[in-house]
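User: I need a structural model of Glyoxalase family protein from Virgibacillus alimentarius for a docking pre-check later this week. Nothing fancy, just the predicted structure tokens so I can convert them on my end. Input:
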Amino acid sequence: MELKGIHHVSALTAKAFENVDFYTNTLGMRMVKKTVNQDNPSFYHLFYADEQGSPGTELTFFDIPMLAKNHEGTNSISGISLRVADDQALTYWKDRFEELNVKHGGISECAGHQTLPFEDFEGQRLSLISDEQNKGVSAGIPWNKSPVPPDKGIKGLGPVKLTVQHAEATNGVLTGQLGFRKKGQYASTIEGQPDILVFETGEGGNGAEIHVEERKDLPPERQGRGGVHHVAFRVETEAELRQWIQKIQDAKFQNSGFVDRYYFRSFYFKEPNGILFELATDGPGFDTDEEVEHLGEKLALPPFLEPRRAEIEAKLKPLNIRD
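Assistant: Understood. Predicted structure tokens for Glyoxalase family protein:
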């Protein structure tokens, strides 16, 4: 068994309408599924991805109105990166962020790649990463109706950074239970802190890396809007997922057991520092209930929630004119 890379990252927002505007209009990603939190269908669950909604390109948001602000700290998913084609694309994005008043840093090198850090309107910690020097898991195809030119568009998820109090425990889960390999390390930008370790799985590269930062000088993060809920890793099939479930359960981790999310099958567990990991299958995919050309245009509900559609829609605030 081998995990293929990063499947998706799920974050938190308190403003669904503004979230849609930022991720589709500012970042030019495609909203491939507009659905609800299956565990609490009073709230939206929004999925942004590439043209096809491919695994490894999905950034999702749970909408929780009135959610308090995220307070950064340890035992958290502290950074999400998004892949672009090359170094030149970063220059385009820097200019775009300045034009649109998006808070951002400067272009710099990180672990052998050029990167551009920025934040969304709720302080979500993001960065763009260039694939120019990348080898490994293939990226997706940018949305063909994006306001961003195709050669500059976002192609999928890059490395995800974890900040923990006890790195050895998290590293042990990545390499021992999940089969990641240590790839290297790079210096922290915080003086006096240990190097950040890089782990990869599958074919490796930007679409399959986890970066682990140890910080003993920070309190645990208090999760809120602008924070990240969980990171998911790619599994080829449901049969393989069930083997992973048995392996993690045998190791006595707190876990969810098998979960059918309709668009994929999954399994959740918490690693020793309390970060929520998910393993998710590549299929069936977002075109299970919508044609690829019309992904994300209407509210999609899994079959078990479809009988409650009228009740659910009555509680949701419309996001755009297609609602």
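Before docking, keep this in mind: The chain has a mean pLDDT of 97.
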